Amino acid sequence: MRGTIIVTVALFAAFCVSGTVESCFKMITDEKLVEQSDIIVTGEITEVAQGGKGRADKSIATIKVNSVLKGEKDLKTVKLAYPSENRSMRRSTDIFYKKGQKGIWLLKKAVDKDYYVARYPGRFKPIDKLDAIKAIIEQQGKEAAKEQDVPKVKSGFIIRKGE
Q: Which of 1, 23, 36, 67 has its C-alpha lying 20 to 30 A from 12's C-alpha?
């Protein structure tokens, strides 16, 4: 009898904590975030379509684009997906956004979807970080240009651009 009670209590405790797993984010530099972003825009969330209660349900926010720092220059709006606040189960790493939120968005394109994601806290920056983000983009552009100008060796021959 005593063994049954101990096993029951142990199983109950395991069940109670199974959905309560703590996690955290690994530090990613702004330089790495800029490099890995498909688009970087400034803008404001103007609409939010709240998702349902299912584990995988997402909310979709519409960001009205003020300026494009990286990516398609003629973007007017961008769709941003994030976990629904209505979900029955949340993770400690879930990030939520609100209508009216303004700033800089460093976004990744969701695979095979028509929306972007920002699953890391550093993918949203307050607008006062604009000069710093622009400087990183400019520096990375200069580095990419230098890499293109470096002659490449192929099979013992130097191949120059345009040859």
A: 23
Place of tokens 């192929």: 154
pTM above 0.90, yes or no: no
Closest among 68, 79, 78 to 137, alpha carbons compared: 68
pLDDT (tens digit per residue) in 81-118: 998 877 667 676 778 899 999 999 999 999 989 999 99
Pairwise CA distance, residues 84 & 102, whole Å? 20
SS3 of the chain: helix, strand, coil, percent, to 5: 30, 30, 40
Contact 109, 71 (CB under 8 A): no
Q: Report d(CA 59, CA 71) in Å as an integer.
A: 23
Q: Which domains does the chain have, with CATH numbers?
A: 28-147 (2.40.50.120)
Please list, in sequence order, all residues whose beta carbon lies within 8 angstroms of the beta carbon of residue 145, skipping any fewer than 6 positions away: none
Give the Cα-Cα-Cα angle 73, 76, 80 (nearest 5 degrees).
100
Helix (H) / strand (E) element for 42: namely strand 39-49
* Integer-rounded Cα radius of gyration of the chain: 23
